[in-house]
Amino acid sequence: MRRLILLRHAKSDWPDGVSDRERPLAPRGRLAAPRIGQYLADEALIPDRVLVSPARRTRETFDLVAPFLLGLPQLASEPRIYEASAARLLAVLREQPAEAHVLMLVGHNPGMEDLADTLVGGGAGSARESMLEKFPTGALAVIDLPLDDWADIAPDSGRLDRFITPKGLAVADD
Questions:
Q1: Distances (CA, A) of 134 to 47, 137, 164
Q2: Burial of 129 (C-beta count, 10 Å sphere; 0-12/13-18/19+)
Q3: Is there a contact between 23 and 137 (Cβ–Cβ < 8 Å)?
Q4: What are phi and psi of 144, to 5 degrees?
Q5: For every residue of the chain, which 3-state class applies, written as one string?
Q6: Domains observed in the chain
Q7: Closest by CA position to 147, among listed 138, 155, 139, 137
Q8: Distance (Å, whole) CA 119 – CA 159
Q9: Whole-number Å distance between alpha carbons of 9 and 158
Q10: pLDDT by residue for the chain (174 residues), tens digit each?
């Protein structure tokens, strides 16, 4: 069994004169990312390995999530995640080592949303509907895959365990 945690970067800013790759998190994103990190810790959703897009907003998102993770997962910057299609993300997943049972990708839309849609063949009904409706910044999809090896990952092979958004966590905390 494998578990994939897809984390879309938190809300980013659009400063003038800054390239897309160097866009920082917005204040709202800097508040949301630790909330997601706390949720991961509370739910014992701790990855063995984390692949992060080299974009500044994804690195900043993970930097704010990481303090909540018990132990230090193996971390790698993965350039192919930036502006990736679902097909490219699947190719990256298929290359992951067997010892990584829980893998987290920190990336961007539309690739993250398309990958989740591609992989999920079943699972939490209302969560799946929410995920298909919108995969907002800071959203987290947890997908269980009945695989022994990442090389065997295929469309519709996953079951959505949960779909969490920062806004949903804010409502739950109020």
A1: 24, 10, 11
A2: exposed
A3: no
A4: -95, 135
A5: CEEEEEEECCCECCCCCCCHHHCCECHHHHHHHHHHHHHHHHCCCCCCEEEECCCHHHHHHHHHHHHHCCCCCEEEECHHHCCCCHHHHHHHHHCCCCCCCEEEEEECCCHHHHHHHHHEEEECHHHHHHHHHCCCCCCEEEEEECCCCHHHCCCCCEEEEEEECHHHHHHHHC
A6: 2-173 (3.40.50.1240)
A7: 155
A8: 8
A9: 22
A10: 999 999 999 999 999 999 999 999 999 999 999 999 999 999 999 999 999 999 999 999 999 999 999 877 889 999 999 999 999 999 999 999 999 999 999 999 999 999 999 999 877 678 888 888 899 999 999 999 999 999 999 999 999 999 999 988 875 443
Q: Which two tokens stand for residue 20?
A: 């897309």
Show the tokens assigned to 35. 């909330």
Tokens standing for 24? 């920082």
